[in-house]
Every structure is written in structure tokens, then in C-alpha cells.
Amino acid sequence: MKYKDAIKKSMEMLAEEDNTLFLGYNISFGSYAYGTLKDIPSWKKIETPVAENLMMGLAMGLALEGYRPIVFFERHDFMLNSLDAIVNHLDKIPEMSKGQFKMPVIIRAAIGSKFPLNPGPQHVQDFSKTFRGIIKFPIYDPQNSEEILSVYHTIKNSTNPSMIIEKKELYEIE
Predict the structure, then answer these.
(1) Residue 61: Cβ within 10 Å count
(2) Which of 56, 146, 148, 155 lies at a C-alpha separation of 20 to 30 Å from 71?
(3) Judging by beta carbons within 10 Å of its beta carbon (0-12, 13-18, 19+), is residue 165 exposed, middle or buried?
(4) Residue range 79-137, pLDDT digits in tens
(5) CB count, 10 Å around CB of 129?
(6) pLDDT tens digits for 62-77?
């Protein structure tokens, strides 16, 4: 199974839960999150404007209301605009509330690929090390389809936030 197919299968598994919603741009139109959300029902997808901090704020609000939001970022570069929400709120609310408030937000953080066409330095940056240094919740970096399936199986019932690093260059690798 290809890396991308494992992501797609994982998204379909998560979509089976009534409380799961998907947020981001290019998830209902365009690339459908690089094809990984193509077969997810449209009523489970919230297409947002290009406003990353808003996306995270919306995801946190949905989480507080009992939903499991999955936020898709096409590139790590775009996540920089959402760091206030991720670092100062998503990461801290469970601790600040002494566990009263749960944040089962899943962040899909894609790293752009230089192949087959290099999109330029601002679309292929990898901030994984930085994220690990500034947030406490789990960050997963699956390297193949088996690891993708395992990670999503592990976090599907978690009440904590998590981030999954996706490498676009691996999408077509089996």
C-alpha cells in the first residue's frame, strides 16, 4: 500500500466516527488534501479560507464542543501563522484546566516535496524539530504506510492533541 493510500484509509476510518470533522483549505475542492479526503462525505469537511490561526481556533472550539477535528496544513510553512493557537492554547488548555477540557485535535502537517517540480524554498521547509521544541503533545513522523496506519490507530481515541508529520515525497512510495 502506498503512503498516500494509508493516509486516505486512515482518514476514512476516522470519518466513520460521528464526531469527526475535517478542516482546512483545498479539502473540499482542488486537491482534496492531495486526494486523501476525496471520498470523505462533504458534510464532514469544513473548507476554510487561507487563515491558519482561524483554522486552529475553530478546531479548538469544535474540540471543546465534543468534536474530533482534523486540521490539514498543506505545508509546514503555512503553519507558522497558527503557532499562537497551537503553542499558547491547544498545547496548554488541558494542563491549564487540570484535565477538565480535552483537546482531541489532530493536525496533519505536510512537508512539501521538491519533486517532480520544486515549488521553492518557502514550500518545502521542515519545522518538525522546532515543533518538538515548543509543544508537549505527541508529534508523529511516520515513514511508511504501516507506520501511518499504526499512528492513526493509536490516536483515534485519544483525547489529547497530536500532530502527524506527512512527507509529500513519500506519498507514492509503497
Answers:
(1) 11
(2) 146
(3) buried
(4) 999 999 999 999 999 999 999 999 999 999 999 887 777 777 778 889 999 999 999 99
(5) 8
(6) 999 999 999 999 999 8
